[in-house]
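Issue: copy button drops trailing tokens. Both records pasted manually instead:
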Amino acid sequence: MALLEIRDLVSGYGQVQILWGANLSLQEKKLTCLVGGNGVGKTSMLRTVMGLLPPWSGSVWFEGKDVSRLPAYVKAEMGLTLVPEGRQLFTDMTVEENLEMGATNRRARPKMKQNLEKVYTMFPRLQERRAQKSGTMSGGEQQMLAVGRGIMADPVVLMVDELSLGLAPVLTLNLFQSMRQLRDAGITVLLVEQNVQMALAISDYGYVLAEGKVEMEGPARQLARNEHIRATYLGL
């Protein structure tokens, strides 16, 4: 049974429909990527799954339960965590204060110290700068902090929206490697990413979203060899 399952999901903003019956399932302790061009509905899917955007129809199932209509804070306490696009940090707060904000739900509070050690082990730069205000950090450091804050929520499923957006290649590589570390630590990861080549290279399984529907899915290595994907998304 899938740990998280999206069934025929339809949603949008106001009168504008973005998702047109999307389906996706996450297997436990696997790294799954959702790739596709700009504006195809990747972020809308994550927001709907998390409860930040109401589904118009279809359903979201987590650990065998229908969680479609539950508010975001309840889903967070169940172990669903979203690292949003654009980081959305508290820029006037320090690195450590931002991390502590990630552990405010009832599930995460008892494990705050343990998860803080995990974050600092994975991202030593954050430990070095734990007293620095997050607004003064580089884009790459801020993205590390956003991922770290997600880890502080003690997730069962960590959904990461546009991990590499606007980052230098060396930092991008480090962050992609951290996704694999999280998977190896037993966290189920859903990575939404425009860097199709890198996302498929590190993932176990992949989905390709086009115009609000899943166009293709399969083992990530198999998708990376697919001629349509190579031509459309990789320019090969």
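Record 2 (pasted manually too):
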Amino acid sequence: MVKVGELRAFVGDDSVIDEPGQMAAYLNEPRKRFHIPAAAVVRPATVPQVQAIARWANENRVPLIPQGGNTGLVGAQVPLRGDEVIVSLQRLDAIRDVNAQAGNMTVEAGVILQHAHDAAEAAGAIFPLWLASQGSARIGGLLGSNAGGVQVLAYGNARELCLGIEAVLADGRLYQGLSALRKDNTGYDLRDLFIGAEGTLGIITAATMKLFPRPVGYETAFCSVAGPEAALELFYLMRERTGSRLTAFELMPRLGLDLLLKHQMTPQDPAASLSPWYALVEVNLMKGSASGALEAALAEAFERGIIADATVAQSETERTRMWSARELMSEVQSKEGASIKHDVSVPIAAVPRLIAEGSAAVARAIEGVRPCPFGHMGDGNIHFNFSQPVGADPKAFMAREADANAAIYDIVLRLGGSVSAEHGIGQLKTGLLERVKDPVALAMMHSIKSALDPNGILNPGKMLGSAHKAVPT
């Protein structure tokens, strides 16, 4: 039994929530797959308070779940057992420093991603981690899950954008790894242990992140392509013609646009014509760079028969409409009923095979299923979703989820891919991780967990599963 009164003694009454109704916002994750209550929610306002919570939990063997904006999709940020205390980092939301000239900013874990964008842009720079939930996702959670987003192609994922980490360890000690250094070879890179660890090794309290020069504009196009093979050819051409200025290359099927129009989630079709597939392409315009590179590449693509046509954004309104169609692609599927979702990646050259073989395999397993694969073709990360057959019973459809999963994951692994590209493991994929991870790598992960959290209080049951134990020699 968690002694909530002891928590209140060192963080204050207003920082602890133990009434079920008031905890609901911290328990209701986006996909509503997990429904376990928490013992309490604690909301520290300072790093020393986080340290005190960790010391108390370690001494009393109380499991802690670090939580940012509660936008995770694999259940890493919500309870698994019912006896956990959620440590919400929302009140640690200070932007400690912004240095656009040096190309970095130091922010606390509870800073909302959109606020980080705003702070960077106010200083004349950009923080290029963009994703659909940026209005609620927070820096600590994004680092804990090693979030990706739509500009990984040019800037990398959360790990590649992070220069340094500050984190509270399981016993309350503070790892002071904040740094703006681009080069540091003094031993192990401890920063990377915490990024992508989903709060199982420590509680991230702050980070130093990279900033980049702000573009003076964008060239954005919505291109009609016959299929993923043509989209891949277009990607190669765009990369060759625009180089590092190519910041995004997103793939979408016509089904996704039809659903957006059907459910009135977009005011008008962003595409120039009906096509089975589309590629959303964006190129940054930097100070001193010539415009027109995108249109020149599109003209060549048209001449070579790679694209049928394209709409080029002529205003920020049109650009926003194009990106809105992409960002709503997953959400709109919920309005069609049940949806089986996969967050996977393969080598870029294998994306067409993944989509063709995966769609065919699941169609054989589930008659009438509607494949809706979309996502970050430029970095090989496809959100391979399947909408239920028209008129089907949602529960009956979801009962076939294991069949769809087996089909997709078999193909992904055969193509040298990953069963979790950017959403993480959480509690949803722990069994899957145990099956697909190299045994030596898995043993190393268990060893690191045991060394940093010997009492197993940090997010138990997540990532490594409930069977975590000291690694056998």
